[in-house]
């Protein structure tokens, strides 16, 4: 006869499995009165739904924000503290170094693209300024012609 477990119980069992410490999975299954293979299935199901445990996440599953936070957290650590941090997070120290280099390269790329973009914007600005000056001159000329035309008409009316 199979037992029916609630979703809440399953989730708590999976969380206990992720934070079980020195206990192995079989001991935890016995303690929860659940079959070992059942607990394994719950863990697999939990991982496939992308509810990854923060400590058991693969390095490629870390978001850019989490990577940056790991870089910041370990920036001033000594080698042994850094290694301990990495073990807790399921990382290797070289992965944090790679992330740091990636951020630095991205910053360099942004700087180069920003310089190109700035140059393009300056060129566009110069073209627009030149066009604006041309239009202002044309407008001033048109205004002067209108004033002269009105004066000429006023002179013609006075003569009649």
List the helices and strands and how they pair.
Layout: H1 7-18, H2 25-32, H3 36-48, H4 64-74, H5 79-89, H6 93-159
Helix pairs in contact: 1-3, 4-6
Comma- or semicolon-separated keywords:
160 residues, mainly alpha, Arc Repressor Mutant, subunit A, 6 helices
Number of domains: 2
- The helix fraction, in percent, is over 70%
**Quaternary organisation of the protein chains:** single chain
Structural class: mainly alpha
Note the main sheet.
Answer: none
Q: With helices defined by DSSP (H or I, 4 residues minimum), what is the helix count?
A: 6
Termini gap: 120 Å
Structural write-up:
By secondary structure, the chain is mainly alpha-helical. The protein has two domains: 1-53, Arc Repressor Mutant, subunit A, CATH 1.10.10; 59-160. The termini are far apart. Helix 1 packs across helix 3 (36-48). The chain has six helices and no strands. 76% of the residues lie in helices and 0% in strands. The protein has helices spanning 7-18, 25-32, 36-48, 64-74, 79-89, 93-159.
What's this, in brief?
The chain has helices spanning 7-18, 25-32, 36-48, 64-74, 79-89, 93-159. It is an all-alpha fold.
């Amino acid at each position: 006869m199979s037992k029916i477990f609630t979703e809440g119980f399953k989730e708590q069992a999976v969380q206990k499995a992720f934070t079980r410490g020195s206990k192995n999975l079989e001991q935890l299954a016995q303690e929860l009165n659940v079959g070992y293979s059942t607990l394994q299935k719950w863990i697999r199901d939990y991982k496939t739904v992308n509810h990854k445990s923060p400590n058991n996440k693969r390095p490629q599953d870390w978001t850019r924000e989490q990577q940056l936070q790991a870089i910041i957290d370990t920036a001033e650590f000594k080698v042994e503290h850094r290694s301990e941090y990495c073990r807790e997070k399921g990382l290797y120290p070289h992965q944090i170094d790679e992330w740091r280099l990636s951020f630095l390269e991205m910053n360099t790329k942004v700087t180069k693209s920003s310089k190109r973009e700035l140059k393009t914007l300056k060129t566009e600005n110069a073209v627009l300024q030149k066009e604006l000056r041309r239009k202002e001159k044309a407008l001033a000329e048109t205004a002067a012609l209108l004033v002269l035309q009105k004066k000429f008409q006023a002179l013609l009316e006075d003569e009649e």
